[in-house]
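Backbone-to-sequence.
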């Protein structure tokens, strides 16, 4: 049994303070999740654009000077022949790309898993050329006394997966890029198997197939190898375009429980369960036929990008499993269940 919280969304864009006065919060969604002391902490993806200015196209940017990164705004006159509007999300000026929105990671805290207080300033924001355009979709995994946070970084070199660590959700140590472009939807396992760290990841596929879920191993969480494709999209209307991993795996008596997403007909995103072997997580034991969650509510079907439920954050607390998910690329919602219910979904 899984139940969407009746008070969803639990966090809306209006609940988040803009990074600077000229910014406008467009979305607070796709949160990673962690249990820290007696709180559930969400690592929100906060997408910001710029307040409108007549006669101009505006882009949020970060300026890097002397080892510091500062948010700013670049204005482009619409009468300038060198300005080209690619689509609703892009501006090209003299051959250089700019995005009309930029994301960072912001923390939100709760004691009951439902009511959250959002911090006023970014926790992880662009800091150099590797993440100049955005920091997105964090996952948090507790391993060996630290929280390992992996997230998508976007730059002129496309998107990649980076890693950072924290012990207190106040200080942050960046480890750099661990999966090179184009790769995202990475999730770290919370413990070693056969002496190795493990991860799921999703390299882009522009060749013969469709984007799928891959497995990798590492001796140190920085250097990854033994890559294997372990699950491909099925020929269904739920997964007709691609699939990708979600939150860090949950260890159960029956195997490693994965909640993954499928992108199907009409770009609709849904969530499914998959079970991996405990001793060899590169092997799929079970894969649910029916979605765990799908877009059914107005806040999931309508928004910045409608018909989307996307999860990269799950928290276990007080015998419950809180599945946090982005709805319509705009707000954060939660569905509540337990491990036994998830195992019975196959």
């Amino acid at each position: 049994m899984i139940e969407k919280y009746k008070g969803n969304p639990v966090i809306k864009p209006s609940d988040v303070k803009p990074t600077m006065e000229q910014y406008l919060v467009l979305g607070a969604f796709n949160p990673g999740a962690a249990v820290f002391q007696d709180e559930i902490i969400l690592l929100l993806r906060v997408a910001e654009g710029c307040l409108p200015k007549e006669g101009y196209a505006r882009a949020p940017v970060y300026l890097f000077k002397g080892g510091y990164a500062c948010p700013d705004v670049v204005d482009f006159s619409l009468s300038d022949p060198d300005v080209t509007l690619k689509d609703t999300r892009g501006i090209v000026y003299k051959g250089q790309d700019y995005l009309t929105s930029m994301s960072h990671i912001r923390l939100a805290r709760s004691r009951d898993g439902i009511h959250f207080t959002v911090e006023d300033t970014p926790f992880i924001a662009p800091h150099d050329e590797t993440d100049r355009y955005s920091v997105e979709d964090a996952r948090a995994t507790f391993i060996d006394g630290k929280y390992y946070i992996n997230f998508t970084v976007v730059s002129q070199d496309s998107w990649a997966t980076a890693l950072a660590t924290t012990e207190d959700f106040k200080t942050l140590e960046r480890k750099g890029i661990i999966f090179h472009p184009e790769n995202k939807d990475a999730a770290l396992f919370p413990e070693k198997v056969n002496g190795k760290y493990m991860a799921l990841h999703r390299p882009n596929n522009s060749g013969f197939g469709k984007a799928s879920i891959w497995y990798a191993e590492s001796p140190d969480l920085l250097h990854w190898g033994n890559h294997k494709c372990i699950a491909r999209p099925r020929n269904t209307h739920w997964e007709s375009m691609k699939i990708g991993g979600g939150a860090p795996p949950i260890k159960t008596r029956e195997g490693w429980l994965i909640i993954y997403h499928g992108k199907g007909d009409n770009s609709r995103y849904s969530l499914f369960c998959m079970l991996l072997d405990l001793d060899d997580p590169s092997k799929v034991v079970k894969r649910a036929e029916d979605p765990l969650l799908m877009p059914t509510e107005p806040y999931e079907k309508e928004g910045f990008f409608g018909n989307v439920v996307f999860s990269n954050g799950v928290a276990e607390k007080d015998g419950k499993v809180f599945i946090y998910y982005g709805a319509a690329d705009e707000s954060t919602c939660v569905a509540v269940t337990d491990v036994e219910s998830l195992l019975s979904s196959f």
